[in-house]
Amino acid sequence: MASIARKNLFEDIPRFLVAQAGIMFAVSLVTIQVGILDGFTRSTTRLIEQSDADLWIASKEMLQLEITLPMPLQRLIQAREVEGVDHAEAVISRNSLWLDANGKIVPIRIWGFNPTGRLFSNWSMSKGTPTALKEAYTFITDRSNLNALNIKQVGETGKIVPLKAKLVGLSEYTQSMASSTSIYASLESANAFTSGLGSSLNCTINSGDVDCKNPLSTADIQLSEPQPQPRRLNLVDPISYVLVQAKPDQDLQVLKQRLEAKLPNTRAYTKEEMASITRSYWRERTGIGFILGLGAAVGVIVGIVVVSQILYSSVSDHLKEFGTLKAMGASDWVIYGVITEQALWMAILGYIPSMALCWGLGAWTVAAKGIVILITPTTAIAVFGLTVFMCVGSALIAIQKVTHVDPAIVFKA
Amino acid sequence: MTASQININKLIQHTEYTASTVQERPLYASGTWERSGKRAVVAKGVKMEFRSGADSTPILQGIDLEIPRGEIQLLMGPSGSGKTTLLSILAGILTPTSGTVCLLGEEITRMSKDELSRFRLKNIGFIFQGFNLFPALTAAENVEVALRMKGIRKNEARKQAKDLLMEVGLDNRINHLPRDLSGGQKQRVAIARALADNPKLIMADEPTASLDSHSGHAVIELLRKLAKDNGRTVLIVTHDSRLMDVADRVAYLEDGQLKN
Prior knowledge:
The complex is a heterodimer.
Chain A: H1 4-11, H2 13-44, H3 46-50, E1 55-59, E2 71-72, H4 74-80, E3 85-99, E4 105-113, E5 124-127, E6 138-142, H5 146-149, E7 157-160, E8 163-172, E9 181-186, H6 187-193, E10 202-206, E11 209-213, E12 238-239, E13 241-246, H7 252-262, E14 266-270, H8 271-284, H9 287-317, H10 319-328, H11 332-369, H12 377-403
Parallel strand pairs in A: 4-9, 6-8
Antiparallel strand pairs in A: 1-13, 1-14, 2-12, 3-4, 3-7, 3-13, 5-8, 6-9, 7-8, 10-11
Chain B: H1 3-13, E1 39-52, E2 55-68, E3 72-76, H2 83-90, E4 98-103, E5 106-107, H3 113-123, E6 124-127, H4 139-149, H5 154-167, H6 183-194, E7 201-205, H7 213-230, E8 233-237, E9 249-254, E10 257-259
Helix pairs in contact in B: 4-5, 4-6, 5-6, 6-7
């Protein structure tokens, strides 16, 4: 049968384009909101997922990757002694401040790790290597952070107050959208960068007046000025995590129990558990998941309203034709089929350009802003399903109109 | 011919039709045709009322009508007399308030909605005053839709659609959209569609009302041909007295009643 649905749809091209614009808007809104939510939550767990650790040992009070209580470095030594542990490394995660060449303060998160280790820093590097961090007071940051730190290239310097620091490498896809600007350094440099922050007012008393100089307020950035070598960490220095690689064929659940029994006040998580806890925190315990989810829901509602209006109006315009089909003896299902096919065409023809638009937009936001709109195959399929549901669901409203049409209208000229 | 049929024909021939234009035509109103299978349409005591709240407006007041197979029956009368309502009931599109309708030996007033749809699809072709073609479909596609609905396969439906359009003289307009056709051509497409899969009954509502004189004559001739050449029964609701030339029978409806 000639497709009445398709031909009705293309009969009035301007109206068809308006309808498709509405569907594209709805599909794009849903895709972008879901993509941002996925990109956001994925970005919060990048460091976990890119690590080669089988287990992450954290304080038992840990809420998510960036919110945890410290534990002594001794836990690293204790972990190495547990049966089934092949290798273990410490990771430090602390907040600090970056002072750029113009004296502008930027909140940063410092990650300290062993530059020659193999568990934490398995990222792609666009410039330099993590081993360059063996030099004191150096750091690596994500390529997308250059603007935020107001530096242009490797070799430039700034101040991780109160100490001066030099950029020695650029990593790729390591920045969490939820986090402050991340900076990666050796354990010793990270410890030095974050020691004494906030307690360094240099004050003198002159004739009863207190005269203070705040080292944070100066933008004097000269690496020629000698800085003391950062000291090695000792057993009581605080660390944030112990990353563990298990021996081959080691049962991770058994190893977790051993580690938790041996390391007081800690819990051990598999990489997947750690990522899941962090994702859940951002999705469920902050407003971000709700807001982005709400945006996606609004997209669906807008889509349903737009498609319903278009289909209803199309059915109203062709009511006499549907009445004619009914008079000729077509069953209601034939009519429903025509309307549903029309809705499916609208869904498909609205979905394809919308998805192309979102891919393009996603590529641009990554390149220009470092913001990932993550459109996974699962998301793409789910959004297509949602689009079909939205359009076919809207068709039900139009079907109601046709169901009640009196076939006797066909005799009205 | 049975005795009762002869009597009725005599009765018809001696009945004077009030409209001057049709005085020479035999008038058929009601009769006592037996259920012999020779009648395509038998309506008995058909009443129709439209209710609005507590008010009830009678539209048809006990119509008895029988149409023999293979004949052209005109249904005439002034506007508002109930012609279209009667046509809708006889076609199984409207359900009467009371009374029975048998088409081709089957009592359609006892059928369910789905059974009625199937019956119409199989047995009745419709022609409408406003053509009721699908504007987005070509002439051939309009006919093809009807054929496909009747279960004919795509390629066969395409071929039959072309044949039907050739039969109504539109072989050079097969791929034209309705907007590119004249009124007469549209009605011929509608007739071709009504002929899809060779239905035994054709029901036409004012088939010439929207046409000029020339097109009207062409359509009238076509209706006569399709009835006489193929033995179809054709019921036509019309104001057009030109159609009386091709009709076998004329019924006159006024104030919801068939008048002799």
